[in-house]
Amino acid sequence: MADNISLLNEILPVMTRSLESQAAAVDENGDFPHAIFALLRQHGLLHYALPLEAGGSGATLRECQAVIAAVARGEPSSALILIMQYLNTRRLGKDADWPDAVRQQVAASVRQHGALINALRVEPELGTPARGGLPRTRARRTAEGWRVSGEKIYSTGSHGLHWFLVWASSDDADPLVGGYLIPASAPGIRIIEEWDHLGMRGTCSHRVVLDEVLIPFDYAVNVAPWSTPKPGLSDEEQIWMATLLGTLYDAIARSARDWFIAFLQQRVPANLAAPLASLPRFQEIVGRIDTRLFTNACLLHSCAQGEIASAHASQVKQVVTENAIHAVQLMVESIGNHALTRQNPLQRHLRNVLCGRIHTPQDDAIFTSVGKAALGAAT
């Protein structure tokens, strides 16, 4: 790990600065950040979480966290796409329950070509599968293989992906539910460019429409009968997701803090004849901000070091995200119009950090689960 961390310390600060120079344009046009992913591929960061036995770098959570923090400090939409790449590619080791030939095919594409993969799960009618229900996207058995039809929304990465891992159900009496692997180049796929969100605009999370897309039978890579479903995320996967998502939104707040501190040091109102940074009011605000970010740093470090049980992963995600949001909101509230002026990056950081509340699990589900566990333990 020491060698990897040393390498990261060398390349990541330079990468952050490069991404920062592109962030405003990515936010403005909402296109997939191809240039950023070319840079990430150049540095070997697209197969970074791919296990060693699959030809990847086999990076640890701590190492992947360092990459996500650096990318998110520069351009956070790219960091979210990269998180999904890490979460999906790290499952391609020899212990994966995929058909081995298919697993090796996807791993080779990631290793050799920087292929991107993400799970497409949310549907227009059903919403997020975390709330339960059977997907309407159907895999129909034919003599040739599966024919998959349906629609997926909020498909993070859309135009930049090489592989879609589509959550669907088969047309069997007891449907096979789970991930059906679909090459993004397959005939019958249409991307409707409807992602026009307030923040994280470069994630390119458009609607993907599948119309009788043909895939081989062994591309049903992670399915199980509806009557006996597979378990959800493993304990380790829950920690990885909470840590990387928390790191993303914490990094946005830290970028906002950097700009805010520079603004306070440089802004000298005529009636004050001294920088805003000299005022106790702003010193207190910065203290409040830094205390929240210090809390985040402690929680994220403990998660990455394996010191927090998976039962608390969602709580870490919730606390870190809310601390990041509140920190940026403090900055915005304290400096007025300067904060919401489009030529200043703080408004972009605010829009991006607010998106942290959207990711599964959401606050109501987190608090209900924690409350139920506490009340059950007390009876």
Automatic annotation (TrEMBL):
The keyword Lyase does not apply. The keyword Oxidoreductase applies. Keywords: Flavoprotein, Oxidoreductase, Plasmid. Residues 123-213 form the Acyl-CoA oxidase/dehydrogenase middle domain. Residues 252-360 form the Acyl-CoA dehydrogenase C-terminal domain. CDD domains: ACAD. Residues 15-84 form the Acyl-CoA dehydrogenase/oxidase N-terminal domain. Signal peptide: none annotated. Pfam families: Acyl-CoA_dh_2, Acyl-CoA_dh_M, Acyl-CoA_dh_N. It is an enzyme of class 1 (oxidoreductase). Its EC number is 1.-.-.-. One of its GO terms (molecular function) is flavin adenine dinucleotide binding. PANTHER family: ISOBUTYRYL-COA DEHYDROGENASE (PTHR43831), ISOBUTYRYL-COA DEHYDROGENASE, MITOCHONDRIAL (PTHR43831:SF1). This is Acyl-CoA dehydrogenase. It comes from Pantoea phytobeneficialis.
